[in-house]
Amino acid sequence: MENTTNNSFEEQWQKAFDDATLPPSEAVWERIELDLDNNISPKSGNSTYYIGAIPALILGVSLWFFMNKKDAIKQVQVIENKAVIPAGKRQKSAFTTEEKLIIKPKENIQIQEVFIPQKEKIIEPEIVVVEPENEVRISNDSVEFINPILVTKKVNSELTNPNITIPFKQTPYYKIPKPVSKKKSVWDRFRISGGVGVFQ
Amino acid sequence: MLVVCLRYVQNQAEAEDILQEGFIKVFQNLDKFRAESTLGSWIKRIMINTAINQIRSQKHFQEMDDVQEYKNQVFDNQSSIEAIHFQELIEMIQELPKGCRTVFNLFAVEGFKHHEIAQMLNITKGTSKSQYSRAKAILQGMLSVK
């Protein structure tokens, strides 16, 4: 019942204004015409300007983004330096790092390269490979020069020089000479036997 | 359309300002009319929105509160308005306070629901209902005198 009365109340008001009309004054239409003629709103057909402005806007935004990116990279470098090295201790820390990096490796390298060749230079001229055959020849020559009569005699002339050979063996490049076996001729293997005795 | 504008404001001059602004919007947005409704109802909706925006700018809706005294009031003496000319009815509506006048126009005359009115005026649904009850009570008092 309450709803019906309320609906009837509202319906009455709706019906009362359904066909209600009032003409506005002519001044209103004149003002509307003036407003439409002098329309300043952006919807009046200036869309070409906005369309033309879009590429310029995109270009501007991209340039701005590019420039900001460069600045951002520079700023990052500055911030890293400040963060790692404090202002007061900046020079000291820089020197210590250079000393560690540059000097110490050079010292290590020089020790290895310099001292070893000096030992070799001193020792190499003294190295004389003395083979037993040469020693025999030298001794024979000297004996012939002194006493040519005793040429046919064999001289036990193996020379040893303990003062020289001991340091040779200590050098890293020294190789102990291997004894070379004398090749015997084929005729040495034959034995000629006589009636009296055996000549070997 | 001038009648629509007159119901939302207090005098002819304000109504003509709303009418002028509303018609400029109509001519500027004619390309957006999609014939989903009649042209008259489309123009009427634009006029209502223009009036609401103008009233909203004056911040009358911020002062609206729930009015409990009119909420459950039953009107026994239902006086008929059929015999009353619409210009007199407009004058009665114009005498209402601004807040409840807008709610009454939107609910009783335009046919909006209270939750729609609450969205349009940025108020609560209860405020819309109470303001409508208040407007209805005032109008009933005016009609009973006549």
Description of the structure:
The complex is a heterodimer of chains A (200) and B (146). With 200 residues, chain A is mainly α. Chain A has helices spanning 2-18, 26-37, 47-84, 90-123, 132-146, 162-170, and strands at 192-193, 198-199. In chain A, strands 1-2 form a two-stranded antiparallel ribbon. The termini of chain A are far apart. With 146 residues, chain B is an all-alpha fold. Chain B folds into 2 domains: 1-58, RNA polymerase sigma factor, region 2, helix turn helix motif (Rna Polymerase Sigma Factor, Chain: A), CATH 1.10.1740.10; 63-146, Winged helix-like DNA-binding domain superfamily/Winged helix DNA-binding domain (Arc Repressor Mutant, subunit A, Orthogonal Bundle). Helix content of chain B is 64%, strand content 0%. Chain B is built from 7 helices and no strands. In chain B, helix 1 crosses helix 2, helix 1 (2-8) packs parallel to helix 4 (86-94) and helix 5 (98-109) packs across helix 7 (125-145). Chain B is globular and about 50 Å long. Chain B starts with a helix and ends with a helix. Classes of the chains: A mainly alpha (200), B mainly alpha (146). The interface between A and B is medium-sized, with 27 and 28 residues.
